[in-house]
Amino acid sequence: NIYENGMLRNQFPTVTTNPNKLEQQARDSMEAKGFNFIFGGAGEHATMDANRLAFRQWKLIPRMLLPTSQRDLSVTLFGIEYSTPVLFAPVGAHCVFHADGECGVAEVAADLDITYIHSTAATASIEDAARANGNGPRWFQLYWPQNDEITLSLLNRASRSGYSTLVITLDTWSLGWRPANLDGGFVPFIKGVGDQAGFSDPVFRQQFKKNYGVEVEEDIISAAAEWNKDIFSGQAHTWEQLEFIKSHWSGPIVVKGIQHVDDARMALKMGMDGIIVSNHGGRQVDGALGSLEALPEIVHAVGKDMTVLFDSGVRTGADIIKALCLGAKGVLIGRPWVYGLGICGKAGAKEVMMGLLADFDQTLGLTGIRSISQCNRSILRRITYGG
Ligand code: FNR
After folding, report:
1. What pTM, to 2 d.p., does this model score?
2. Label partner for 362 (CA 20 to 30 A): which of 18, 68, 275, 373?
């Protein structure tokens, strides 16, 4: 349809389909603070660059004359069938990028039947996003608070609101050193404050009132500082403390931010159902490995015993296929649709994800793949000359 509209009707997409131009279009359309928060990685962006270079090191080897015109993109994760292995990555602070916010994205996710993952740092409440998502598939991402009562409150609310799977992000117990935000400022925990996953939490509100003598709305700055302190405390939990979460969450649990094989093994040992191999889009440790580099050895170590998902640096359909061929069972998309959201709201996020899915589907067919289970190393080659 995109081809037909462009070639025959002179109708072009609002958001560019060129992954290399998307960032610039967002920069041109958005307020600097919002754009910088999406764009900004840690340090000198060495890991962000490595995330892309890692994809360039692998090349697909297409097969011809195979019956691939009818394709089945469905996958089963934790016993549930999903129509595609692609997921929306958890991303906080949507209202800073566009007023459509998390509810707009949750609605788009349901329309496209792609899993929506609600962030603890969202600017919409857990309940409102669930309502907007309706019958769509949804997971909840936990930034693990220091305060157990708040943790339990978030888990209960997510469970009551129909979020099936819990994602615990391990790599952001303290925010990374992100010059674009440090220099340019950034206000996500203040805009849209009343609706936030955290600020709307009854336990957080109660404790805030007890300690400060006022409602959250009456002293937003202190509330934001308290909330940040609790979820980005600068103090990590321990592997053993995952027992606590396990005893309070009945669905599957996935830990996000795994890059080291030994951590993948620890996650398995602690009884996690899955891991997300991710470096948070190069936003945490600059100089860390490109995320795709870590994937093969982790799949080799634990892939038979637990579900391995992947993110960081995925920009094209071919990237999704490469990650699947290297053993990922699902692939999370971050910045691209967030830029779409910033450019023109939920319609932009939708265009980007539809485009990416179409590219993925088309490229699968052209590579000679009919179903996701056919993605394997036999159609990949590692090329070390770069480029
Ligand atoms: C994120 N990411 C993230 N992860 C998470 O677990 N909770 C969160 O609230 C956020 N928030 C967030 C905001 C923004 C603006 C970005 C870009 C990213 C990380 C995200 O889930 C994912 O790991 C990365 O986006 C993957 O990297 P790329 O592909 O976007 O470069």
Report:
1. 0.97
2. 275
